[in-house]
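User: quick one, fold this
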Amino acid sequence: MMKTVAVIVGSLRRDSINRKFAQALGRLAEGRLKFQFVAIGDLPLYNDDLWENPPQSVLRMKREVEAADAVLFVTPEYNRYFSPAIKNAIDWGTRPWGQNSWAGKPAAVIGATPGATGASAGQNSLKGLLTVVDMVLMGQPEVYFTYKPELFDANNNIVNEETKAFLNNWIDRFAAWIERTGQAAPKAQAA
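Assistant:
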């Protein structure tokens, strides 16, 4: 059975290169993984007082993450760090106490920038946090993607064969990681 991946894109920008990259990757993954994009732009800033009357956007996000077999974080890099929108989503997902939606989930981190580093600093800072919230993080292979328009066609499909081969290998490895680790880690009660 094909595994479902909750995809969290950290850029909220309408024309985000990370969203375009994630969508193109999702099309490449068809038949191997099902990408389910989880909206995080409507989450309020984390405030523990809001659990008295939880925001519907938070409850929806937690349900979508919990229903998925794995999570893929696609982060831009802001000042050598990952997206604050992702941090906010992670904080909401770990609460209320004892209801950590992230715990035990296989996860991977990728990112794109127009620069040469492919969001490497942002990805590495995010990876440290994901282990703290008890996710089962895939370490290799890594994807530090330099976004270049010529790698895509008008419909935002990846057309460069070398890039496509690299990303297909990454998809196969992530699918194998999900299969291997998806049942291995029990869901923790708290982060």
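User: anything notable?
Assistant: DSSP finds five helices and six strands in the chain.
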